[in-house]
Amino acid sequence: MRRSGLASFVLWICLTVLTLLPVWWMLVVSMRPRVKLYSKSVLINDLYWDNFLAVLNSSTFLQYLWNSLVVATSNAALVCALGLLAAFGLSRYKISGGDNVFFWLITNRMAPPAVFLLPLFLLFTKWFVFGDFMLFDTKIGLILLYCVFNLPFAIWLLKGMLDGIPLELDEAARVDGATTGQVLSNVILPLARPGLAVTFILTWIFAWNEYLFAATLTSSAGARTVTTALAEYVSVTGTNWGEMAAMAFLTTLPALIVLGFVQKHIVTGLTFGALKG
Amino acid sequence: MRQSNIGWLFLTPATLILFVVGLVPFIYILYVGFFDWNTNAVDPTLRWAGLQNYRNLVFDATFLNSLARTLVFAFFVVVSELLLGYVLARALMADRLWGRQFFRTIHTLPIVVAPIAVGATWRLLCVPGFGIVPYYLRLWFGIDYNISTNAYHAFATAIIMDLWHWTPFVTLSLMAGLTALPKEPLEQAQIDGGNKLQIFWYVIVPMLKPVLLTTVFIRLMDALRSVDEIWMLTKGGPAEATRFIGLHIWINVFPKTDYGYGAAMSLLTLYVTIVLSWLLFVAMTGRKGGAQ
User: Fold this and answer.
1) SS3 category, B35
2) What is the ipTM of this complex?
């Protein structure tokens, strides 16, 4: 037993190095001055911040960063609110045809984004137009659109969590004269808070990471997100590797920050509750 | 459980949004697919074309090649991730392991990194003349590795990048599945004198089947629609070596503004995806159709 323990420990170490290498290399490149850029050493030789400063001093990038922040946060909040309501309905009421609706809600997540790019583009530019306002190239458009993949995810995750809250608690509150709204806000909400936090963080990350919709359905600095900034940067300035790495690192940063918190729930979330992580 | 009409009240907002951004686009594209519609053509209006778009699609070699390429990619990726993930999951489930939680956290990292940043990072690693991968491959093994001229290298790199990105997910979910397995059948099989291979095939695999199939299902769906990473890594090149179907639709439809044809292309892709997932779903639940 001890020998196999040691072997698997060594294996863990090797795997960890392999897992971290690309991210590490990104950090290494981002901290290299131009003259040393083609060095093949994988160590950080000096703390050189100019690449990060150059990226963060660009007003366009800051605008994109702000857009991403607004879109991801609003979308996660919206999705959590609607997801909680829907999960409450599905978990606490016998809805005729509820199973089928639930199944349809969930299948939305499986839709390949590339397939829906064209119809969404056409709808956003030609149909969802209200006077001077059209959904194309707006943050609101992206916030609504990201519900396609985030809302099914939130409903699934939250339904699982609400199913775990005993029905007796609802009944007890109702016997004491609580209305449905009060049951939701005073019984369910406090108990579902950890689940809501997980849902919020994961959907936030998914919205932050999204690229294809953002690239196709926005065109100006008013709505484009960091992922599109990174892609644009690569196609515009072919070989400014240092700044590209810095930008990629900044795009990855939120994921790195919430990593420890998300770790326990990611497998459960991604397998739609089929597995407990 | 209470009466149904109030339950619907809670479901309505979510259903409404998903109706608008999920179902309406689908219906719309179904409609557009029957028309000849190019906003930059001499006649930019919709003209009825019947099934002409689909007829053209069947003879469109670039489209079909890219579809086939995607299936090959997905097959390689899913199979290798499953094998690798299983071996790693077994190897890493040693009883005494110092810092297991820490390692598990590290291995969650690739899963949450933005695909676009994954692509950028692998570009930094692999791009000829700059990355360390071509440099050390040449230095240590004398291999001329070049993802911007060699189609095989580019394709292989796309697969390896996907392995880096998603094998940890497969490992973690198989570990979850293995941990949840009941111990008795395994012990019984050992007592009955089954060898390792027999135990694996006749005891573990059947018990792990739901987990295996769920994991395959999720990985297959993701592999079929991967666009961002590939776009950043190779832009679909060299030539069309890594132009997978999502990328093909994306870089073809919008510059050409041939919307009717694009709609047909998108729909056929969706159809292939649905058929594949349906086949898996049937295998998963062991019966035909219907929600579980």
Assistant:
1) strand
2) 0.86
Q: In a mutagenesis test of the B interface, which of A6, A95, A268 is the best target, namely the one with the most B β-carbons within 10 Å? A: A95
pLDDT in tens, A127-163: 888 877 888 888 999 999 999 989 988 988 888 888 8
Helix residue ranges, H only, chain B: 4-18, 24-32, 52-58, 61-91, 100-112, 115-126, 132-136, 151-179, 184-191, 196-198, 205-224, 228-233, 245-256, 259-285
Provide the CATH topology of domain B50-93+100-285.
MetI-like fold (1.10.3720)
Q: pLDDT tens for residues A245-261? A: 999 999 999 888 888 77
Q: Do B120 and A103 count as a contact with CB atoms less than 8 A apart?
A: no
Say if residue B128 is exposed, middle or buried (CB neighbours under 10 Å; 0-12, 13-18, 19+).
middle
pLDDT confidence of residue A237: 62
Question: pLDDT tens across B50-102, in order?
Answer: 888 888 888 988 999 999 999 999 999 999 999 999 988 887 776 656 677 77
Q: Which of A92, A119, A212 sits opposite B228 (nearest CB)?
A: A212
In degrees and rounded to multiples of 5, residue B235 shows phi and psi of: 60, 25
User: Quick check: B15 and A147 in contact, CB under 8 A?
Assistant: no
Q: Which of B95, B115, B129 sits opposite A1 (nearest CB)?
A: B95
CATH of domain A51-270: 1.10.3720.10
Q: Return the higher-pLDDT residue of A139 and A277.
A: A139
- Predicted pLDDT at A131: 77
Between CA B218 and CA A180 the distance in angstroms is: 37
- Chain B nearest CA to A277, separation (Å): 5
How many Cα atoms occupy the beta-carbon half-sphere of B245 within 13 Å? 32
Q: For CATH 1.10.3720.10, list the domain ranges present in chain A.
A: 51-270
Tens of pLDDT, residue by residue over B14-29, are 989 999 888 899 899 8
B8: its two tokens: 């619907």
Q: Is B50 left (phi over 0), alpha (psi -120 to 50) or beta?
A: left
DSSP symbol at B139: I
Question: What type of residue is A14?
Answer: C
Mean of pLDDT values over A154-182: 87
Q: Tokens 């009955």 map to which residue? A: B192
* Distance in Å from the first CA to the final CA of chain B: 20
Token pair of A228, please?
């599109």
Query: How many residues does this entry show for chain B?
Result: 292
Q: How far is CA B5 from the centre of its chain?
A: 39
For residues A167 and A89, give the distance between their C-alpha atoms in angstroms, rounded to a whole number.
13
- Under DSSP, the state recorded for A35 is G
Neighbours of B162 (CB within 10 A): 26
Report phi then psi at B47, rounded to 5: -120, 135
From start to end of chain A, where are the E strands?
A: 129-130, 133-134
Q: Both ends of chain A: CA-CA distance in Å?
A: 25
Per-window interface: A 76-95 vs B, CB < 8 A: 82-83, 85-86, 88-90, 92-95
In chain B, where the domains are located: 50-93+100-285
User: What is the spatial distance between Cα B118 and Cα A210, in angstroms, rounded to a whole number?
Assistant: 12
Chain B: residue nearest A80 by CA?
A: B14
